[in-house]
Amino acid sequence: MIEAMRPGRTDPVGVPESDAGLSRRLWLSTAPVGLLAILFPDAVVAGGQIEEPLADSVRSALSAAVANDAPPIPEFADTESRLNYLRWKGEMAFRLRRKKSDFDTRREFLQTVWYESRRAGLEVSLVLGLIQVESNFRKFAVSPVGARGYMQVMPFWSRVIGDGDASRLFHMQTNLRFGCVILRHYLDRERGDLFMALGRYNGSRGKPQYPNAVFESQRNWVFKP
Q: CA angle, corner 175, sides to 167 and 109, nearest 5?
């Protein structure tokens, strides 16, 4: 997702780029996503869904899936399920402490990720791994192609299945809701093939770098009670 500079291109103040600078940018443009995520953890290296025509029924279903603004309050069928959730949240809050130092912010974020992942039928560890690759847990991250927020949602989605207000993609629950619904949509389109669905989410369908980076990051968020 990082664009290489063309030979002879200048920086914003009109100074020609050095050979070393050009070489570095060309390397960044071809380096694997997973390697970039490790070497440059604060860089946005993903987030480029491609706008595609949607059938009216699909558009309506996706719009309905993102329309409910109810707060992400988990509900449990029994006490054991609730205890497992609390154990998960406590462990994930500990693992996430270096990314989000404020405890209340971590708690709210994790509760919302858990709720939206489960709502979309996705593994929570997968969604956390995707967020790590996409934005490194930065709420206001913006990619070079304009994708926004935790899950790097492209602004066109707010027009296609939302109310058209792309600024809302920086709202935590809205961004996580859109991201999870979009990934679920791609997973359904790929008939359950997660590798291909992740590639479609990144705009690199069929290429291994992005799915492999997400799978690698997912390992950081697997919880074993």
A: 120
Helix/strand/coil for 16: strand
Q: Are residues 113 and 2 in the same domain?
A: no
Report residue 167 as tokens: 């600024």
Cα–Cα–Cα angle for 98, 28, 212, nearest 5°? Answer: 60
Same domain, 110 and 162: yes
Statement to judge: residues 131 and 173 lie in one domain: yes
Over residues 30-69, the pLDDT tens digits come to: 344 444 444 444 444 555 788 888 888 888 989 988 887 7
Cβ-contact 34, 216 below 8 angstroms: yes
In the structure encoding, which two tokens stand for residue 168, read together? 């809302």
Q: How many CA atoms does the CB half-sphere of 224 hold within 13 Å?
A: 2
Q: Is residue 35 assigned to a domain?
A: no
Phi, psi of 201 (to 5 degrees): -60, -35
Q: Are 99 and 56 in contact (CB under 8 A)?
A: no
Cα pseudo-dihedral 161, 159, 110, 143, rounded to 10: 140
Specify the pTM. 0.78
Whose CA is closest to 49, among 135, 148, 168?
148
Number of structural domains in the chain: 2
DSSP-assigned beta bridge partners for residue 148 = 142, 153
Residue type, 220: N
Does 92 lie in the same domain as 6?
no
